[in-house]
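Hey forum,

I'm writing up a methods section and want to include a predicted complex as supplementary material. The small molecule is zinc ion. I've pasted the protein sequence and the SMILES. Can someone with a working setup run it? I'll credit the forum in the acknowledgements.
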Amino acid sequence: MEPVPSERDPDALECGMKRIVLLAVGFAVVAANAAAQGPVDWKAVEAETLRHFQALVRLDTTNPPGNETRAVEYLKQVLDKEGIPYQVFSGDASRANLVVRIKGNGTKRPILVMGHTDEVSIDPKKWIDHGPFSADVAGGFVYGRGTVDDKDNLVASLMLVLMLKRANTPLDRDVIFLAESGEEGSPEVGAQYMIDQHFDAIDAEYCLAEGGGPGRLAGQYTRASISTTEKEPRAVEIIAHGPAGHGSVPRQSNVVAHLTKSIAKIVDWTPQLRINETTGSYFRKLAATAPSDQAKRYRDVLSPDPKVSKPAADWMLENEPEHWSMLHTSLVPTILTAGYRYNVIPSEAKATLDVRLHPDEDQSMFLDQIRAVINDPTVEVRWARDRYRPAGASRLNTELFTAIEAETKKHYGVDVLPTMSTGASDKAQIRSKGVQCYGIGPALDYEDGARGYGAHSDQERILESELHKFVRFQYDLVMDVSRPK
Ligand SMILES: [Zn+2]
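Reply by user p_vandermeer:
Happy to help. Structure tokens for the complex are below, copy them as they are.
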């Protein structure tokens, strides 16, 4: 998925850390005892997890072009050896999706666990110490493209279905594993294709996918961000139209001038501050643990009185822009196209804005609002493309979300912050069908992103120990909501 800095931002996290660390120690002992009595041989699971993980990372499934069928072929031979049936769905033979269903007794509706098989492109020259498809293990890390996005969730979901099948685990609901293609910018072959053409195969009450997880600061768990909703990406184009002419004569109709004035108005405009269930809970929980001046700002943005909320939001725009973005639709100019000769006034000048709509934004009125702000009849405002990541939110009062909170406490000793991702993911597609989706993943070091080791970076890596911990976390989580009681 696209990086979500707010989830990995260490600002404001140092508060209360000692208390959290002490809790973590206590819970670790409980978890270790439970594991010793359990039926799963976790040492063997770890060895097998690493083997499958390295094999998957060594497959080049960079998108474009994807070639995700390489990963599907690998999964198929693993499943064939176990006698686990699967279905393969593809609109494009090189970009297949794979579905495994472990049957339950049908008391509850299914749970879907997802991992995407594609990964973002690489610049091979930049991968100096460890190759992008090396899956090298060094200093406790596994290196390679996809190690934190998203072959970690992929292998955890594979291990889940292998464990359930081998133990013939009684289940109150079907557990469905979807290995999906095309998450990195081409959902039309993956998540969108699956919901349009084969939704029956993945229809579920709940889904778990990438987009969250615990953060570590100086090696200690601090909090877990669990994505429960996300902003909707929908670029906007602003186009100034006017007569072409000679550059030696100034004209008030100059499209370059009209466009730049329009952009200046847009960047000075603040769309309405909006709070929803997720962000309300997020800022309340942050306020509960933050130092007092910061806590006041997190409380202030929740105030219905703009005189209170606006100064706090303005502070965030300058100091914590990810938080500002969670509170507003954002409009960020990213591309300008105008002119081709210095002495020719062009007849058209265009700006493209990366717009991330708040899920509660009224899209039918939004362009009219921009037009009113620009207030220039020579300037056209239009969507750059149709909706492709439909906005939606998952509830916080579900059995699964409650289980995520409990398992996070048990495994990591920290609290969950329900988070609105500013970036987009395939959960948007699945949520559009009414499935309650939550973003989970292995713990990441906050420091790693800034040092260039994060998702989409040239030294992408994961702590091996955290990959194994996540496999156990997801297994326990799914069992929590699926075990017959
Ligand atoms: Zn991803």
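Some notes you might quote in the supplement: The CA atoms of residues 194 and 200 lie 9 Å apart. The radius of gyration is 24 Å.
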